[in-house]
Amino acid sequence: xxxxxxxxxxxxxxxxxxxxxxxxxxxxxxxxxxxxxxxxxxxxxxxxxxxxxxxxxxxxxxxxxxxxxxxxxxxxxxxxxxxxxxxxxxxxxxxxxxxxxxxxxxxxxxxxxxxxxxxxxxxxxxxxxxxxxxxxxxxxxxxxxxxxxxxxxxxxxxxxxxxxxxxxxxxxxxxxxxxxxxxxxxxxxxxxxxxxxxxxxxxxxxxxxxxxxxxxxxxxxxxxxxxxxxxxxxxxxxxxxxxxxxxxxxxxxxxxxxxxxxxxxxxxxxxxxxxxxxxxxxxxxxxxxxxxxxxxxxxxxxxx
Amino acid sequence: xxxxxxxxxxxxxxxxxxxxxxxxxxxxxxxxxxxxxxxxxxxxxxxxxxxxxxxxxxxxxxxxxxxxxxxxxxxxxxxxxxxxxxxxxxxxxxxxxxxxxxxxxxxxxxxxxxxxxxxxxxxxxxxxxxxxxxxxxxxxxxxxxxxxxxxxxxxxxxxxxxxxxxxxxxxxxxxxxxxxxxxxxxxxxxxxxxxxxxxxxxxxxxxxxxxxxxxxxxxxxxxxxxxxxxxxxxxxxxxxxxxxxxxxxxxxxxxxxxxxxxxxxxxxxxxxxxxxxxxxxxxxxxxxxxxxxxxxxxxxxxxxxxxxxxxxxxxxxxxxxxxxxxxxxxxxxxxxxxxxxxxxxxxxxxxxxxxxxxxxxxxxxxxxxxxxxxxxxxxxxxxxxxxxxxxxxxxxxxxxxxxxxxxxxxxxxxxxxxxxxxxxxxxxxxxxxxxxxxxxxxxxxxxxxxxxxxxxxxxxxxxxxxxxxxxxxxxxxxxxxxxxxxxxxxxxxxxxxxxxxxxxxxxxxxxxxxxxxxxxxxxxxxxxxxxxxxxxxxxxxxxxxxxxxxxxxxxxxxxxxxxxxxxxxxxxxxxxxxxxxxxxxxxxxxxxxxxxxxxxxxxxxxxxxxxxxxxxxxxxxxxxxxxxxxxxxxxxxxxxxxxxxxxxxxxxxxxxxxxxxxxxxxxxxxxxxxxxxxxxxxxxxxxxxxxxxxxxxxxxxxxxxxxxxxxxxxxxxxxxxxxxxxxxxxxxxxxxxxxxxxxxxxxxxxxxxxxxxxxxxxxxxxxxxxxxxxxxxxxxxxxxxxxxxxxxxxxxxxxxxxxxxxxxxxxxxxxxxxxxxxxxxxxxxxxxxxxxxxxxxxxxxxxxxxxxxxxxxxxxxxxxxxxxxxxxxxxxxxxxxxxxxxxxxxxxxxxxxxxxxxxxxxxxxxxxxxxxxxxxxxxxxxxxxxxxxxxxxxx
Lengths: 304, 939
Known about the structure:
The complex is a heterodimer of chains A (about 300) and B (about 950). Chain A is α/β, with parallel strands linked by helices and about 300 residues long. Chain A has two domains: about 20-60 and about 275-305; about 60-265, von Willebrand factor, type A domain (Rossmann fold, 3-Layer(aba) Sandwich). Chain A has helices spanning about 1-15, 75-90, 115-125, 135-150, 195-205, 225-240, 250-265, and strands spanning about 25-30, 40-45, 50, 50-55, 60-70, 95-100, 105-115, 155-160, 215, 245, 270-275, 280-285, 295, 300. In chain A, the strands form three sheets. Chain A has a six-stranded mixed sheet, sandwiched between helices. In chain A, strands 4-11-1-13 form a four-stranded antiparallel sheet, with no helix packed on it. In chain A, strands 3-2-12-14 form a four-stranded antiparallel sheet, with no helix packed on it. Chain B has about 950 residues and is mainly beta. Chain B is about 5% helix and about 40% strand. Chain B has a 22-stranded antiparallel β-barrel. In chain B, strands 15-14-18-19-27 form a five-stranded mixed sheet. A two-stranded antiparallel ribbon of chain B has the order 1-2. In chain B, strand 16 (about 360-375) and strand 17 (about 380-395) form a beta hairpin. Residues about 1-20 and about 55-60 of chain B have low confidence and may be disordered. Chains A and B meet through helix 1, helix 2, strand 6, strand 7 and helix 4 of A and helix 1, helix 2, strand 3, strand 4 and strand 7 of B.
């Protein structure tokens, strides 16, 4: 059995895919309300100057992907739907919204439109049962966003609204006890390892995409497995320049969604050219005289 | 990066800017957005993310089918572990340990090439795990020293190291000088009995059956002591094998319906460690088990605001235990016992022979049907739930098929004088104090039902204030038997043999119902509130209160079937004077064959007693917590809770309807006479009652407060620390039982397992080194070494449990089953420099005089056993091959600091004549570092 196991592992492992380097990448950046002029910023990649190809400010168009992953308590789901509808309803004219669902694989609920009513209706009508899908939807959502931004001059951001509990996934991240009578099983003393591994993979893959990703989680959970899950989500979103917030009460949901929207609307998108022979992981510096921008500084090359 | 608390100023500024751009810029933005929207459609189609994607080859084009999963292997070996402290102290070697745990998991859409494409509709997950384990077990026990086995007790000493005198029961005679008004003492003996010369029993006097039984003892192999105690160091392997699997399939029917099926099984064998390598092994029997479970869940979304969930679950847990079978009774010359296992022998002070329940088969099945409807109505979220559970327990459990023989010191003692005589000496004389033989006519097929209907409402009164109410109507049906083979003692039924109240009744016979308790329905209300004081979203105040009842349990075993199964019982009429029987003459045949459905069939036995009151355990709990988010991603939570319960199910240590009132202790030595004490019992036709731990008669109260601090950072650190302070009191939890069944208030004491302070720390940290991290982000070969490290750990400290002091002797004629010690006024039980040499001051306690109650508490309010600690740590190293595939190596260390935990101090208090020299002292420690290595490949 162990030999078979090792052979299977090696056979699978030897089929690693080579990395692919794109021609440009995008920085998501923010400046304080009192500041302006970030589009005159310069960019250095691995310490070497790079050409700024495009800078999109909050005045430019914004395409927002709203991805819902709601399968739990209707109380929280309804609160989130109402809060999301309220936020979408007051979006400025330069912001279009697409609605997507994470259930059973990422799929489109409504195409991008300046009329938020379509997205709101789609979100309200989306299924709220089944397995959690956030972890499986984040990478394709980011891939879609990056594919679109590569061919259009708009800012793009992804906002995931989720109430996912790590126990609700179809894929087995919780390492459940199979042999209950095995009282000396120590392998489950640290059950968070699987989740950490999965979210580390997710963070690694999201770092290859350019749209900032935000997560609003409706229910903060305190058990060890969900702690690891929530920590992983936070790291994965921050790898894209976005962030994750976890609501500790129902009352916090509207402000959390509102906060995420504010952050998304305020972001700058600065495209820069990629020099040749970049390492797989690289850092950038964004400098603008007199400004102190917050920006995503770490990137990794995308993989096929 | 800042979080979502981005200044509202930013938002306002951006919003203003975007609402008022120049007309040209606005047109450009709209044009770009239209272009992006078209590109979105193209790309989402290319990525297979659209429901309206063109169909190709009969199925919608969709994202590539992806399967995810993992292969795992965990390894433990004694070479990796530290030598446990208790083994070190015995001078032994590490126990052997070989443990391999392996398995896999695969999940994804269900696709059968050319037959079925379940992408987006049908999904599966399958997991397997196997365990192969051989582990060495070590125990330190006391068995007879070699001279004792031939009747030579010249080296036998008491707890103080003084010679222990053994007396010859054949020489027993009344003391003509006995003064009944003065009470029995060494100077006023009621009976005279001669000590064996030299404290040696003549070999010719040994009972031949007992002598052959004694041959099954192994030789002592340890001198841990003191005084020949702890002379058997058992070091034996335990072998465990387990294989289990979980299979899940779920399917979506359009958008509104979903069906999920989950099945699982486990098969395994537990071959327990053996204390003796012969049929008299008193260790656990080997056990085979098979667990099965299947469940189906159907979810129907009637509307976005209304969801119905219906589920059915069936589970089956089967367990078989067995020990060596043979004609062992005949081999030792014991007549009159029907079973094929070695007789079960209990001897005061020594590890016994054989075991109870040598052969058992249990099959426990449960069928659960549940329906839940969740709907939203205005600001109300309603939930209606109904559940019905049907349970079956099919069981065959002959407790003592080859007999149970208990030997105490009384028959070889100087009657009335403690610290004389020896249980093993009584055994060698073939004189048990108590004998019981089980006769099982047929297995039992118990059945039970319970269920509930519940209504819950979560109501948002206003933003920041939510309340939820729940009302649960629970019904619980009592246990029945498929063939009505159940019985109990009914206190109201007249007993024909004694004309006293209290006789056996049988289910379905003579007007008795199929069950002995009524069907019970109970309302269980609950209330919860969450409030953000002052509208502050960073702070939450929560309050909850609820009332709950426990339903009738479905115990395993054949308790409550007396009459259909027989417990032939033989007991001493005076434990100091008369044996229950003589081993060499064998066990008499039962007077009546099985089934014996006479109302007096349980007379002169320990009768099974079902609590027919219908009382159910009731709990009330309430809690208040305040949670506040502080700067630097710190969350602080303070909480307090109180809970109390009554009618808690208790066992024979805490309830005894046949108890003799302690006021009768003034009868002193007369109480040793069964014919005398019998008349003092409320139900003299019975020795005692066996409630099987199911008498609804206990109370408890617990108060607790806790503080929790959580810290989570984007640098990959999650940390939480928790401190809990609690006090729990009850009137039933032992550890030795109640001293006075008639004074419940006097039994109210700290719960023996109450740890008043618990501190715990839990952390996870992705080390900030390697690719994508702050430090050493090498891109070359070094990244394989530096990147992907994480550490995870848990530490906890618990203060010790309350010490329960225990007198070494109990000379109360059997009136008091759990005697306490006396407290000595003016003597501090605490010691200044607490150490294993002296953990508490034994001089603060004294042994109660014969036939008196102890004045001390059941558990001490301030003395505590040593605190315990655990420190576990796990390192993981992840090596990513690509986006989907990775290896992860883990090294987990349990008790990584290799800390020894002190054993509990010796809590036995001796008499002034025979003090326990070890009282208050701690002997040895336990624990040791354990390491497990793991490898996982995930894809």
